[in-house]
Design goal:
Helix content: under 10%
Shape: elongated
Radius of gyration: 15 Å
Distance between the termini: 40 Å
Number of strands: 4
Largest sheet: 4 strands, antiparallel
Number of helices: 0
Strand content: 35-45%
Strand order of the largest sheet: 3-2-1-4
């Protein structure tokens, strides 16, 4: 395998997206829990995803990272 695929170093840059688990609640707003971060590859053709946990229902929502602490 060639070494032509380059990715950004996820430990030195701010993530581009944040991963959340969203639990739906009857008649109420969903409950959002931050579970990870996402960094784009340098070539723009993919992402590195780092999850701290995986939701049991399998639903993960990705949102663009903002400067506001959520």
């Amino acid at each position: 395998m060639t070494d032509t695929n380059t990715t950004t170093n996820s430990s030195s840059k701010t993530p581009s997206h944040v991963a959340y688990q969203v639990r739906d609640r009857d008649g109420k707003k969903g409950f959002w829990t931050r579970i990870g971060s996402v960094w784009p590859h340098a070539d723009g053709k993919g992402f590195n995803i780092q999850l701290e946990c995986v939701p049991l229902d399998g639903r993960i929502t990705l949102r663009i990272a903002s400067e506001n602490k959520e």
